[in-house]
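R.M. (postdoc): so does anyone remember the format we settled on? I'll just put the structure tokens first.
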């Protein structure tokens, strides 16, 4: 048997460089694949955020691959063969300029992409197709669908044990007016990749355009008290025709 610190049979130490490089590469590819398993967004605004995230991910993978590759190359290429220092290099102006200018360019590009994505996400159209007032309160939601004249066409209020449903038209821009009746809440639909705070005394307006039909879970993402975990709702994205039929349907839901 080979004791600790002794050379294996054959007299030469095993080279861990290739195995280490393969392990690092496998871990990086696995992380990249897992990052791509997230469900796709269902809103136009969320798509802008998704594209920005993918750009940041691509930049991170390139930087990680470059740094890890250089590190592994240095470990393997300059591993100790004898008890002496390798040639030392000091004051390489080209290298110092490169690792100063290149990161600055990368940061500038990511800043420009972030600014453009933020502009697309926060943009508001002059004439939205639907208007919905959302009021958050401990610990439920109220959704008021407004007509062109500002009158309430349908009023949905959540009650304990029953999640309210927010119906929206697919492919149409919806203007939301978000308020809070008591403490700070947060309007969050994970599949929309969009979140806005509901702050007492303040109205937050934003546009969302759902381009995929279906039902998507929503919740309050800001701890707001004892029953915060029960502050849930569903978003049901339907065709414009079904949305109009929904507004013309039964009377306002009673609390």
């Amino acid at each position: 048997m080979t004791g600790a610190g002794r050379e294996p049979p054959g007299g030469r130490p095993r080279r861990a460089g290739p195995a280490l490089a393969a392990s690092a590469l496998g871990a990086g590819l696995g992380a990249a694949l897992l990052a791509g398993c997230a469900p796709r967004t269902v809103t136009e605004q969320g798509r802008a955020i998704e594209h920005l995230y993918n750009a940041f991910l691509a930049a991170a993978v390139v930087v990680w691959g470059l740094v890890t590759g250089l590190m592994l190359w240095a470990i393997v290429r300059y591993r100790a063969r004898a008890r002496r220092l390798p040639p030392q290099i000091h004051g390489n102006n080209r290298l110092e300029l490169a690792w100063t200018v290149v990161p600055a360019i990368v940061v500038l590009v990511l800043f420009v992409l972030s600014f453009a994505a933020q502009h697309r996400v926060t943009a508001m159209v002059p004439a939205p197709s639907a208007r919905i007032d959302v009021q958050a309160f401990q610990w439920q939601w109220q959704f008021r669908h407004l007509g062109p004249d500002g009158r309430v066409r349908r009023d949905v209020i959540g009650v304990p044990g029953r999640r309210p449903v927010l119906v929206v038209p697919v492919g149409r821009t919806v203007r939301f007016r978000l308020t809070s009746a008591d403490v700070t809440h947060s309007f969050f639909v994970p599949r929309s990749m969009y979140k806005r705070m509901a702050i007492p005394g303040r109205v937050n307006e934003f546009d969302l355009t759902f381009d995929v039909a279906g039902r998507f879970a929503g919740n309050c993402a800001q701890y707001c008290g004892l029953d915060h975990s029960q502050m849930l709702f569903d978003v049901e994205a339907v065709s414009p025709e079904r949305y109009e039929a929904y507004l013309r349907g039964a009377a306002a839901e009673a609390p």
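R.M.: ...and that's the designed sequence above, right after the tokens. Also worth knowing: Residues 1-7, 251-255 have pLDDT under 50 and may be disordered. The two ends are 77 Å apart (CA to CA).
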